[in-house]
Amino acid sequence: MTVSIGDRVVGGGRPTYVIAEIGLNHNGDVEIAKKLIDVAREAGADAVKFQKRTPEIATPEHMRDVPRETPWGTMTYLDYRRRVEFGRDEYIEIGDYATMAGLHWFASPWDVPSVEFLEDLNVTAHKVASASLTDTELLLALRETGKPVILSTGMSTVEQIDRALDTLGTDRTILMHATSTYPMEPGEANLKMIPTLRDRYAGVPVGYSGHERGLQISLAAVALGAVAVERHITLDRAMWGSDHAASLEPGGFERLVRDIRVIEEALGDGVKRVYPGELAPMAKLRRVGA
């Protein structure tokens, strides 16, 4: 099965759909967001993704008054969330910038008003963060949009994934295998879940959302059949913020996309054949013919 996102088809042997997760790595700065969009474009990604919250709804109550040290001084966690959140004008600016760069753009809405906010801006798709997989109200709102939904499965049981798909439906959903550790160690990657999810939810395309250091695990996911790959990107892993350490810098992300395309070409179609390049070695080396 395939799912169409804008002008791209995901699954069914099509090229891997590469998502550059900007998230909150813009640190509330539109110019940083634009630089990260440039990184995604130059690397050859298909899409950039952000996160959209209504801080008063999406911030857990027990976290709201917790002090947070930030580049703008000490503030409550709720005020920090407000400080880094883009509003309508900023999203119009970065959305137009991404579109002009030839990229799809969308976000992970963390609450129903954020779904409405993004729909008003006519995003091409929606992404469900792993933390939101059990939020039935949010999933129902996303189903009502009729848009493609990319569903990350970190921190979730198979039973919870079952319920989420029952709510969303499967005709426009892409599952993303994920482990929600930041950064993730290789022993927690469990990449064999990619074929497991594909077998359990026949017809649902399965991709991979990674939070590891380096490239190897994401590349192995493609070799195992992931139809989409999402990785966080940053201008500098040393920047302030919780996601930078598990992100790829520009050079790393460019190598990731390059190597994904090489792997796609190398996987072939599974039909055994003798290639033209083998004919000369065969004539030179094979002593006994067929």
UniProtKB/TrEMBL annotation:
InterPro entries, per database record: Aldolase_TIM (IPR013785), PseI-like (IPR051690), PseI/NeuA/B-like_N (IPR013132)
Coiled coil: none
Annotated GO biological process: carbohydrate biosynthetic process
GO MF entries: N-acylneuraminate-9-phosphate synthase activity
Occurrences of domain PseI/NeuA/B-like (ranges): 36-272
The protein, known as: N-acetylneuraminate synthase
